[in-house]
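Q: Entry one of two.
A:
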Amino acid sequence: MDIKKRIEELRKTIEYHNDKYYNQDDPEISDYEYDQLSLELRKLEQEYPEFAAPDSPTQKVGGTVKRELRKVQHDVPVISLQDVFSKEEVYSFVYKMIQELGDPTFVVERKVDGLSVVLRYKDGVLVEGITRGDGITGESVYENLLEIKSVPKTIPTKLPYLEVRGEVYMSNEAFERANKKQEETGGKVYQTARNLAAGTLRQLDPAVVRERELDIYVFNLEISQGKEFKSHSESLNWLSMQGFPVSPGFMVCKTADEVWECITKIGESRWELPFGIDGAVVKVDSLEDRKKLGITSKVPRWAVAYKYPPEQKETIVEDIIVQVGRTGRLTPLAILKPVKIAGTTVSKATLHNQDYIDSKDIRIGDTVIIQKAGDIIPEVLRSIPEKRPATAQKYVMPDKCPICGAPTLREEDGVEIRCTGTNCIAQAMRGIIYFASKDAMNIEGLGPSSVEALMSEGYIKDVSDIYLLKNYREELIDKGIVGKEKSVDNLIRAVEKSKENDIDRLITGLGIRNVGKQTARVLASNFADMEALQNVTYEQLIALPDFGDIMVRDILDFFSREENKALIERLKEAGVNMKSKVSDTKKDDRFAGKTFVLTGTLPSMTRDEATRIIQMYGGKVSGSVSKKTSYVLAGEEAGSKLTKAQDLGITILSEEEFKKMLE
């Protein structure tokens, strides 16, 4: 293995996932998978110090600062904890502390899964609240913290200055309520309470914070002018007396056995808690001892965070059924004998495709091992052949759609099997849900439950029927299908508003295979209207940035179908905008023939705004750097795209340089 290359790959991968987790609150992998990447990188850097780098993700805190919120310098660096994953590592830490300190005491706490914040009080009054950010600079979320009931706005002891650190989180109940509302309004459904809590706290509208019922636990005292403490446990007890909700159920220990016993107890009860935790923290209790030990550039030497492995259970595959997606893709779903895992009862798990089933040799009747990936999504890890009954049946994907009966077809050189039917209700329902979603036409109030109800009552058969709902206003109110009068009127207003969208949203909503938001924007910036798109040629499309043969053929196939031509005509008759606003507002062609790639956070504009400007001047925006790239517009925390551009000798632009090109 090329060690240097592997280290560089790990750094880029971890930086990418840091951005998704800390800055976008939208992680793509589980905490466990992330921890394994970090662990591998840390070990390689220790074994091969010649490849060490000061900007490695192992040497800094993951988060950066969002541009929209005011930056605030931290008084005390807000750093992460060293992660450990085994009993041996916990004992090693405890023995090391005993060796260095003599007779230390330890505190073991639950590691609440939320967003770390620092609270500042002057003369007993809350005056500021700051996120972790990059550990040196955070972002002010003071106005949002005022909306959290459990955050004390004043405390009885009026110290000149007090600073505490806590974790803002969302309870399981509040998470379920918020997600239910998101579903009803067609908004994004969050995968974890942590993501929703983090996204909520960084909202620019404090009313959203009030509505979503966030909570806080304070787990550390950072500064207390005018009052001295000898131990961490003493400071937590004092903070509790001041009205702070402190680390729930923290325990004081002396020996390694006691520490491990506490960790085990927390692990056994974690799924019964009303909030999520992602580990247990072991800290040296004495504040004087902490000063002696000090900190490294990234972690304190006096604490570690133990990460629990994903819980795994045995259960039985009672059946395998098939779901049909909006593009006609058939996805097998295991119906499991219900089993409680990671705090909830699991009775279903996706099996992805026929190849997945075959490679793991999963049969109906099998005993299987399941876990929740990241404690969220149920997955079947493997079957246990030695427990297989004689009646176990191999599963083969159907050659007919289970919904409409049309033949199914396996993609050439692919693993996906699709329904070939043009009138499949399952495809239609998911297609309509997607059309109304936030990334497409953004019709608030037309979520999955509303679409299902309107389809079952016969009001919607395809997306064009959405624009006829206003004709049935009184009926809808009387029947209460999507709610009472206010809900119906809000939905009709949202439908009417969506008619004004630029055609990139319409293109996205049409659900053309392999065409997402970015591709739709490129099409909208290169073609004046839907008519031009319907008459587009292979040569015109293949010349566009990042357009490959498969995508081009999918687009041509979509617009060649008579049923799609008729659908677009019905949408046009309903008053849906068919013209490209980007093309209409094009100023000149100074960027004609130029391809831009955007990376990092720009100081004064979003990527969407920058994309629109580039398109208005005839340029194209691509999602990846290649030899065809003309410029890379780079902001703060630019990642691997910037590195690749530098390697290829592509011109790098700052926002200021980009603006000069517009003058």
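Q: Entry two of two.
A:
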Amino acid sequence: MDNLDYGIVGNCRSAALISKTGSVDWCCLPEFDSSSVFAKLLDDKIGGSFEIRVAKEYTIKQRYKKSTAVLITRFSDGENTFEIHDFMPRYYNENGGYHAPPELARHVRHIKGKPKFRVHYNPKLEYALGETKTYVKKNFVVSLTQTEKFDTIFLYTSFNKNAVVEGRELEIKQNGYFLVGYNEKILLPSTRKIYLDLERTKVYWLNWTNRTPTYNKYNKQIMRSAITLKLLSYDRTGAVLAAATTSLPETIGEVRNWDYRFCWIRDASMVIKVMADLGHKNVARRYLQFIIDLIPDKDEKLQIMYGINKEKTLTEKTLDHLSGYKDSKPVRVGNAAYEQKQNDIYGILMDVIHAQLAKFSTGIENGEELWGITKGIVWIVSRHWKEPDKGIWELRTEDRHFTFSKVLCWVAIDRAVRVARILKKNRKLEQWTQLEQEIKNDIHENAWSDEVNAFTQSYGSTHLDASVLLMESYGFIHAKSPKFVSTVRAIEKELSNDGLLYRYKNKDDFGLPSSSFTICTFWFINSLFKIGEEEKAVALFEKTLTYGNHLGLFSEDIDFKTKRLLGNFPQAYSHLAMIECAVNFSRKNTEERILESMRE
């Protein structure tokens, strides 16, 4: 596959990526950040996959069941047709919780004729380290490894188990199923039971999407992106993952390969704000609890990222036996960036806390803890905002006074002031308001460059950076301010490449980036829209949408030349920014219609 032509299915516990030909090429069980069971995505030869193989006469089409996370792959040669409905079960159970077991179900639906196919079932446990052996038992197929450590996976199916494992041809005469599970089942599955799980899972997603507002423009894209963000949330703790994969390269053949199966405070907080705006307050409530649980000591500084089960140490190592996506080594698990200092995370977190308190101030849970966190954040920011840091892009070289970090330090204090007003804690206001003004003055004085007529990447620099576009959306500067308008123009001139944006152009730890960071393009589109260039913004938005894959999913990066998707996938950052653009366009449209009707 030349592009990341994958669909994602999941149940807020784990996820699987399924190619447009119906092959499971990435799946980690029992959880998102567990070792892989199938990792063909990272090594064509030894990674392991679960493929559905048909004769070349068959055409294959793929779509999502509308408003759900059920992926349907249809195989047809004209006379003979069948479908695979892939899903990870998720639905309410009798005790009020969710049934979300660590398993992938593949419901095989007979449509017409006598379709034939073969299975290539080749699990490779523990990231394909060592040997995985597969045995056919009476009720299931079991695969196990004990080279690195002992691990097992179970396959249940309505088809002949020996024929499945041996890759012999199978004929579909009626509906059937495959179920890959981390645990041995106590009650044996059946086609009827898998179908029931499928219907219950559909109902879960239909109920969930029903709580998302409908928009008059781009509703389909907003809904698919919202479902994707939900799929990247981890129910058990409230964590939100940056992406479902590790080590998909930002540029083919280079070494910018990172593990994104963790919860970055920045990415997650931005996701939560968007999800809460779409009406999904439970996701926000769980995430705030995740944060509260992480900060037991009042003077404990936040890490930029944590494991999805609140792990604080995320040791990075390389898996040298895997060749990497399109031979892009190294494959990394863990992420050393957890040790970095990035001052912007306090503002981003305070923005979420304020948004939730502003919306639900009377019924918010944990108000006292959130006020405690607010005071703690102000204490930390007041002592550290003048220090350099690694910045939003996690440069692994020297620290700098990044403009984005400074703006977000201002946001931290600005939102803390607002929270104090909501909670009527007035004794802090004067001191905090003075600090807010001091930071604001410092940014205007040091981040602006007369030479390039723009706010720049860092103090004293003439380099431009797409992240400064967020100054406006965080309320630091008005969209029609001449300084902001000229910053947008300068960024367009310097960082835009055929409508796609560089994050920055100055060399970093690995040289000049050769792919566009998807979120930056959406930030730019939003900024164009805000400064009044609405037609241009919408045209660029619609062009960018065409770079998504066949299911409308986006990764972290887009190659400038080929427009292929690169980087980890699907990327929460990209989808949240796409939603923000689409909602802004749609709201403007709605406001115009209301004004029209009032004039009539």
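A: Comment on entry two: The mean pLDDT is 93. Residues 387 and 401 are 7 Å apart (CA to CA).
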